[in-house]
Amino acid sequence: MPTAPFIVGLGGTTRPGSTSERALQVALDRAGALGCETLLLGGAQMPADIFDPTRPERSEAARLLVDALRRADGLIVATPAYHGGVSGLVKNALDFTEDLRGDDRAYLSGRAVGCIVCAEGAQAMGSTLAALRAMVHALRGWPTPFGAALNASARPFGGPGQAADPAALQACAMVADDVVQFARWQQAAR
Predict the structure, then answer these.
(1) What is the percent of the chain where pLDDT is above 90?
(2) 98: which DSSP letter?
(3) Which residues pair with residue 9 across a beta bridge?
(4) Beta bridge partners of 39
(5) What distance in Å separates the CA atoms of residue 175 and residue 179, rounded to the nearest whole number?
(6) Backbone angles phi, psi at 7, to 5 degrees
(7) How do beta strands 85-86 and 74-82 pair?
(8) What is the chain's Cα-based Rg?
(9) Residue 114 in contact with residue 74, Cβ under 8 Å?
(10) Is 12 left (phi over 0), alpha (psi -120 to 50) or beta?
(11) Which residue spans within 29-179 are E strands per DSSP?
(12) Which pLDDT belongs to residue 57?
């Protein structure tokens, strides 16, 4: 009997409760409801140290990240759009996948990666989503067919006196659905 897929959520910002971190939590909640084990590595849990391939020592946060990615059956990445690309915090965290290069499942091989982008403009949403998907490809991951692009200025997860946008909730759930489905297919194939 297969074990519950392990889905890692990576993203957010250094600001607790950011739109991208809330989107990531919604997606992971959906994966959990589908019977998966989940782990959220938000801004506070991501490595603050810059990835340096010439230095073998790693911070505790970097070791936790690499160990989680090594175990992961799927990954969901949520990033704000900073100047048309992913945030430096998210890019740096993804750079640590280099530590998986010698694994049987090198980098993100055999894993679906759901992509969520939060931005205040349509142009930034599109360019950042394309950049994130290209990074996932470069890391040998499988970007899910659906990528969520959320307008952060519309407060998609509500605020005082404002309910969450059902379309934003559905978009995050669709990303999770794709990641979980692929993870289960991969488990069945092994």
Answers:
(1) 86
(2) G
(3) 40, 76
(4) 8
(5) 6
(6) -115, 125
(7) antiparallel
(8) 16
(9) yes
(10) left
(11) 37-41, 74-82, 85-86, 112-119, 142-143, 148-151
(12) 94
> How do residues 159-168 score in pLDDT, each as one tens digit?
888 899 999 9
Give the integer Cα–Cα distance in Å for 156 and 80.
13
pLDDT at 177: 98
Tell me the torsion sign for CA atoms 124, 129, 134, 138: positive
Q: How many CB atoms lie within 10 A of CB 59?
A: 12
Are 114 and 175 within 8 A, CB to CB?
Answer: yes
What tokens appear for 62 in the block?
């970097």
Flag whether pLDDT at 1 surpasses 70: no
Mean pLDDT, the chain, rounded, equals 95
Q: How confident is the model at residue 131 (pLDDT cuts 50, 70, 90)?
A: very high
Give the closest residue to 186 by CA, choosing from 66, 64, 6, 31. 6
Q: What is the mean pLDDT of residues 85-113?
A: 96
C-alpha distances (whole Å) from 173 to each of 28, 97, 160 are: 8, 25, 23
Report residue 157 as tokens: 């997860």
The DSSP code for 153 is G
Summarised one tens digit per residue, pLDDT across range 10-39 is: 998 888 889 999 999 999 999 999 999 999
Q: Which amino acid is at 23?
A: A
DSSP state letter for 162: B
